[in-house]
Amino acid sequence: MRTWRSNRRTFLAVCLxxxxxxxxxxxxxxxxxxxxxxxxxxxxxxxIFNRITLAVSGSVGDLADIETxxxxxxxxxxxxxxxxxxxxxxxxxxxxxxxxxxxxxxxxIATNQEQITANVIANADxxxxxxxxxxxxxxxxxxxxxMPVVTKQGLLGRILNVTANAARVxxxxxxxxxxxxxxxxxxxxxxVIGQLSGDLNMTFIPLSASVQEGDLVITSGLGGNLPPDIxxxxxTSRRQFEFELYQEAVVxxxxxxxxxxxxxxxxxxxxxxxxxxxxxxxxGATP
Amino acid sequence: xxxxxxxxxxxxAAVLQVTVVPQFSILGxxxxxxxxxxxxxxxxxxxxxxxxxxxxxxxLKDLLSAAPTGTSVVGLVILVFIITFIRQQxxxxxxxxxxxxxxxxxxxxxxxxxxxxxxxxxxxAFLNRLGIDPLASALTYVILPTxxxxxALVFPIYRLVRWIQKRVGREKPFFS
Lengths: 287, 176
Known about the structure:
The structure holds two protein chains of two kinds.
Chain A: H1 8-27, H2 32-64, H3 66-103, E1 115-122, E2 132-135, E3 148-151, E4 154-162, E5 167-171, E6 178-183, E7 189-194, E8 200-206, E9 216-219, E10 231-239, E11 246-252, E12 262-266, H4 280-283
Antiparallel strand pairs in A: 1-2, 1-12, 2-5, 3-4, 3-12, 4-5, 6-7, 6-9, 7-8, 8-11, 9-10, 10-11
Chain B: H1 2-19, H2 33-42, H3 47-63, H4 71-89, H5 95-119, H6 134-168
Helix pairs in contact in B: 1-2, 1-3, 2-3, 2-4, 2-6, 3-4, 4-5, 5-6
């Protein structure tokens, strides 16, 4: 008996129509409840596999690096002695700052941050063109879209979407990620954009700004999407093109995105919605 | 039987893809286990069964991805149809045909996925004005390293798939 599948073109067209229907439904969010339920067992198994993988790769790495670690330990001990003197000096400065801040009734955002610890259950996106990870905390733990995700080494990204017990983080290395950054030394501002190479590109840095290799880049807080003063990475090189009105720099994050185990989600930061200012006509304001 | 095996095998592959495989990443490229399993299964199965593997593999992969569900299905379904057509033109699958199918299949699959991601807003088309070309960047950092990895892994995966297929046995098409 001939069926519609006997005609290969019809069969292919039907298959593609179903696939396109899935994409459109998923993009519109119509499949979210089904996706959330279907992804739960996969996320659970991923969590187990990820713990085993990181434990094994950590042990293998430790054995291979033992000599390097010994040499590095000696260097760090030497550096520690040097920094202890500096630390005492900085504590004095911090104490002065605290007193002055109290006088001005100014509270640092960093000291007021509320954070939730989360385990990474998927270290990468199965689609090689995207840079995301999955963590084992979700809406039930108070995680919401837009919350910043960090480690002690600095900024990782922002929450992209949330299910009941898991959340996906859009890493700062994803090509669609764009963050307002600032050079810690000169306070020059720019935009930090993710790249598929794993590096970050800091662009729109004013030509007058001095950019040095090794300079730390921190979040500026501009745009209201992220709190200020979170470390993004370190400048590794700079580029300045003729006839351009700005300069660029390559930034390397201090995080190793392939071996993330535990991350922190800043839960009390509320992203500011600036879209209301984008079209004055909508607000009834006159130009 | 082969159609029913697709879900556990491809689910395991998708989980390995997000946990173990990133440890072997070069630049942004990684072997694509779901892609390799689907094309090698399609090389020695009916079209119906190949299509089921393409849908199962694509959906399972997309469930673990930020991409909309169905993104990976399009490329895999097209590849299964092309493989079925090629299979009818060649006497038997040999090393050369396996290399060509993996090479051209990887390029076609990755480009299809890139186009869908561009259309759905998951790739930064607007950044072109900043001198970042998404296609050039994807080719250099993702597509080329992925092809190299896929070529290296296609032979062991093909042998594994053949071993499973021989044990399962060739059955009449799933739909009939």
